[in-house]
Amino acid sequence: MIISTQDQLADREILTTLGLVRGNTIRARHVGQDITAALRSLIGGEVTEYTKLMAESREQALDRMRAEAESLGADAILAVRFVTAPVMQGASELLVYGTAVKLA
After folding, report:
1. pLDDT of 7 strictly over 90
2. Residue 74 burial (CB < 10 Å; 0-12/13-18/19+)?
3. How many separate domains does the chain show?
């Protein structure tokens, strides 16, 4: 499965547009991570606990989008975008979406 932020692929022709596909996840922070992050903010640097949480969220959302595209028989997902939004105190949604297509 090709996943790209481009609207078209230079070396492939789009035969059919299958439509919008998406994947999302909502994750809440762990109180232990918040304490560690607060301590880290005092001295500066990367907050690795949150970096790991976001990386896992992105992969889960991508996997869900890919599964939806595969169920439609897609060869690729184009114009892929990520969006985040707060849901409640300490929890955010990560949404990924794109256009599923059949390629020549």
Report:
1. yes
2. buried
3. 1
Write down the pTM of the prediction: 0.84
User: How many of the other CB atoms lie within 10 Å of CB of 87?
Assistant: 12
CATH number at residue 50: 3.30.110.70
> In terms of Cα–Cα distance, which of 54, 96, 104 is closest to 75?
104
> Domain residues for 93?
2-103
H/E stretch holding 71: helix 48-71
Residue with tokens 């990924």: 96
CA dihedral 57, 91, 20, 103 (to 10 degrees): -10
Cβ count within 10 A of residue 69: 25
